[in-house]
Amino acid sequence: MKIAVFSAQPYDRRFLDDALARRQAGGALALQYFTEPLSLQSVALAQGCGAVCVFVNDALDAGVLAALAAQGVRAVLLRCAGYNNVDLAAAARLGLFVARVPAYSPEAVAEFTLALVLTLNRHTHRAYARVREGNFALDGLLGSNLHGKTVGLIGLGKIGLAAARIFHGFGCRVLGYDPAPPAGFRALGQAAQLPALLAASDIVSLHCPLLPATHHLLDAAALARMKPGAMLVNTSRGGLLDTGAVIDALKSRHLGALAIDVYEQESELFFHDHSADIISDDVFQRLLTFPNVLVTGHQGFFTTEALREIAETTFDNLECHRAGKPCANACLAT
Predict the structure, then answer these.
(1) Cα 304 from chain centroid?
(2) What domains are there in the chain, each with its CATH number?
(3) CB atoms within 10 A of CB 209
(4) Sheet strand arrangement including 2-5
(5) 98-123 burial by CB neighbour count: b if 16+ within 10 A, else e?
(6) Measured on CA atoms in the order 162, 164, 169, 170, is the torsion positive or negative?
(7) Comparing C-alpha atoms, which of 285, 300, 294, 286 is closest to residue 125?
(8) What pTM was estimated for this model as a whole?
(9) Do 298 and 266 contact (CB within 8 A), yes or no?
(10) Looking at the DSSP assignment, which residues form a beta bridge with residue 293?
């Protein structure tokens, strides 16, 4: 079976090739790598393949899925946890197998969340640039202790729970909002409804999936409920934030700081080098003008351990499909 790997980066090749080499005998599987994202324009690249392997910004709407099925593709392998970019109802109608990697490394994203908080709070990114220019002045670098602060976590899945352990270890008061808080959270923090969490938290961090119910979860009304001067962190999905409302909250000084590793329109920007290009996204460019905003390019997952787990689980999912066995990671239409 040939597998078309879309949005392939050099590190995808490295870890997928290594995982395949460890488990394959006889060359039953062959990987074809494409740097292009999957879309209606690029779907023909999967001709002759039995499966496609895709990432967060690949398009898997009804039209793309129908084109894949018409070419003989039977399996869609997501090398990520989120599946908001897949029309699962269409996949079910077409008889396509869809599976994800639900828990490649919760600690990777949780630890990166902490890195963003500490960087933005203590201005280490600005201090680094200053020192390299011979400027050792401390004005403008004043931060605050993380110990004793209230951290509100929206979403208490594996990543949210890992973040709760980290912030609890720093001596923070941890609040968590989740439709079904896990039992393990009780030793780390206190469950709260969203309005109460927003009002009480010095730092609000998003760790929930992007669903119709969570699209623009933090809109103008929710941002207005936040504690004045609080920090907002998003390492989950860009669509959880109403970016225009966030910019307004920054301009009014109600929102004290913002750190994002994801962006609602990131598919046109992230995972590629645009250093020689003119970026035409005015909303994104506006975000970069704020000194209290930190933006990274969706790298929260990017650790050796996570990429190794992503590759292994991707092939585990494919093996389940080929063997006709139930797959715990299958994505089913609701």
Answers:
(1) 16
(2) 2-104+303-323 (3.40.50.720), 106-295 (3.40.50.720)
(3) 15
(4) 30-33, 2-5, 51-54, 75-78, 97-99
(5) bbbbbebbbbbbbebbbbbbebbbeb
(6) positive
(7) 294
(8) 0.91
(9) yes
(10) 258
If one counts every other C-beta atom within 10 angstroms of the C-beta of residue 27, the result is: 7
Question: Which tens digit of pLDDT belongs to each residue from 188-231?
Answer: 999 999 999 999 999 999 999 999 999 999 999 999 999 999 99
How far is residue 208's CA from residue 197's CA, in Å, rounded to a whole number? 15
Residues recorded for the chain: 334
DSSP alpha helices (H): ranges in the chain?
Answer: 10-23, 62-70, 88-94, 106-122, 124-132, 158-169, 194-200, 220-225, 243-251, 282-287, 304-323
User: What burial class does residue 191 get, using C-beta atoms within 10 Å of its C-beta: 0-12 exposed, 13-18 middle, 19+ buried?
Assistant: middle
pLDDT tens for each residue of 239-293: 999 999 999 999 999 999 999 999 999 988 999 899 999 999 999 999 999 999 9
The strand pairing partners of 150, in sequence order, are 173
Q: Cα separation of 77 and 53, whole Å?
A: 5
Cα–Cα distance, 238 to 234 (Å, whole number): 7
pLDDT band for position 105 (50/70/90)? confident
Dist. CA 243–CA 94, nearest whole Å: 35
Give the residue numbers marked as catalytic: 237, 266, 298
DSSP letter at 193? -
CB 83 within 8 Å of CB 310: no
Rounded Cα–Cα distance for residues 129 and 18 (Å) = 37
User: In angstroms, rounded to a whole number, what is the distance separating the alpha carbons of residues 225 and 206?
Assistant: 16
